[in-house]
Amino acid sequence: MTGWRLAFANLRFHATRSTLTVLAVALATALTLSTLAFQRGYERSLQRNIETMGYQVLVTGKGCPHEAATLILRGGSIPMYIQSEMAERIASLPEVAASTRFFMQALPAPETGATQLHVGIDAEFLRLKPSVVFQEGGWFSSETAEEVVLGYNVAEYRDVVIGDELTVLGRPFVVRGVLDQLGTQDDGTIFLPLLTAQTIFDRLDQLTGMGLQLKDPEQAATLVDRLHDLPSVQVVRLSQVQSAILQVLAGVRTLLTAFGFLCLVVALLGVLNVALLSAAERREEMGVLRAMGCPAGTLFRLAWMESLLLSLAGAGVGVLLSVLARGAVEGFLRASLSFVPAGPVLVFEPDLILGGVLLVVVLCLLAGAWPAWRSSRVSPLRTIRGAAAWG
Amino acid sequence: MAVVAGLAAPDDPGSRGMGLIELAAVEKELGRAPHRVRALDGIDLTVEEGELLVVTGESGSGKSTLLSLLGALDRPSSGRVSWDGVSVDELDDEALTRLRRERLGFVFQDFLLLRALTALENLQLGGLFGPRVDEAAARELLDRVGLAERGGHRPDALSRGEMQRVALARALATEPEVLLADEPTANLDQRNADALWDLLRELHRERGLTMVVATHDATRSEAADRTVRLHAGRIADHEPS
Lengths: 391, 241
Hints:
The complex is a heterodimer.
Chain A: H1 3-13, H2 15-52, E1 57-61, H3 65-74, E2 82-83, H4 84-91, E3 96-109, E4 114-121, H5 124-128, E5 134-137, E6 147-150, H6 152-158, E7 165-168, E8 171-179, E9 189-193, H7 194-200, E10 206-207, E11 209-214, H8 220-228, E12 233-237, H9 238-281, H10 283-291, H11 296-324, H12 326-336, H13 350-376, H14 380-388
Parallel strand pairs in A: 4-9, 6-8
Antiparallel strand pairs in A: 1-11, 1-12, 2-10, 3-4, 3-11, 5-8, 6-9, 7-8
Helix pairs in contact in A: 1-11, 2-9, 2-11, 2-13, 9-10, 9-11, 9-13, 10-14, 11-13
Chain B: E1 21-30, E2 37-47, E3 52-57, H1 63-70, E4 78-83, E5 86-87, H2 93-103, E6 104-107, H3 119-123, H4 135-144, H5 160-173, E7 178-182, H6 190-207, E8 210-215, E9 226-231, E10 234-239
Parallel strand pairs in B: 3-8, 3-9, 6-7, 7-8
Antiparallel strand pairs in B: 1-2, 1-4, 4-5, 9-10
Helix pairs in contact in B: 4-5
């Protein structure tokens, strides 16, 4: 007979109560882990999305720069433009090492029920984005070619290969290349030569924006100050975009954290309730153990083991639950949030799981400590006298 | 034989000639003023090693209070309770706990088996805080009380008579020097009560165990080496005197 065996037997004896408590702890664990995984995954994916853009400063037409940056990140159209002449001026500024210009337009895509993003790009695009690699094919044959390069997902769901034709605005385009999977919004984009895109959308000399790579990233503030003086352009550093999005997300994170915290409190109350009930129901049994010569410290440990078993079982089920429900939760978040970066937004890593489980177990043990202490203080005399009517 | 700190072993030359447990001018008051009750009043009693002492008396006569003092579960309000000549007043709570663990076994009126454990596991309970009670020894004891086939049953699957026999086996599993039983047959029918008394007598004979049994049934005194009858907290009769 060991203390673990006794604790397990007691929990099994009250199977329904124990199961419900384990489920409450599991739910709290799953929510806590998912909240932590979301915070880590979202921030990391956002960071990765921004890094793969290949530039540090984004210039767009006049308007809210953060809205523009977010729209570009999520692949939307911006009804504001920069003139080509202005773009030339910006590209020649001394702080700028390289720049890429683009023209974006979203068109309805009846086959998916959403919109399809079309982006006109110039030759600098590949130089600024070293992560972009062709899976098949290659770059456009000319600046005015009626050709497209497809993001990985577009090529997948349209089931096209190099040389096939694709219709854009009723005109046939030849598929010139397919990109490797990047895990960003580029996977869902149709790329065209910049001049071709401006022509078919009737926006010659107009750009949606341009990305600037700096000679020295420390000069970003100086460059932004200089660009602010220019008329009809907005400028934003991508690091600011990241913090702005994370600020917007802070509300959601707070809500999730509060919800997770509430679940944790409910679970802890469950553990406390079970431990108190157990202590109250087993006063006689505890008294017998005391009468048999069980030290108070051992009795405390025996009672506490039940809380530990409940919390470990709950935490284990919770980890399983959070990992199994990851896809569904991620889908729900993508459907509910206004902006979710491409890539995994729930990242479960060993340190996070260990930390979450440790938090839940420690809190459950704290909740079980007081009832365990009460159990250990049971007087053998009072209990036996009450139970057996001594006197 | 286990020796509790501060207590001389029974075979210590210094303890020869003394009883195992001695009560001298013991008084015990229960409750708080103004409802304080004197449960024991001027008790002088010696429990000799190896004897079967039966304590009789009506309900409220002080039998259970006497057992609680003999069993080191409580301390007297005045007077002296000593084990092997050492007063329990000289022992702290930890030493009293050790005394109970190493030298005493208890059987209660309501059996008080742990409901979540099987009969066999109840016998092994003492191993949680004392020397391990191995399964073979526990099975042997169950066999001795006639329950060899019931080891895997939990208390709710046992009759009351069976439960009390398991409780008796549990008390013996830690190989105590003294067995204290409080109204062990009060919740049993006549047939089971007789069987349990027979078992107590046999175990007393076989093991030379010191036993103190409290019962309201005066007819049980015929089983005893000695009988003490309590009335209103005092010793009314002592047989043989």
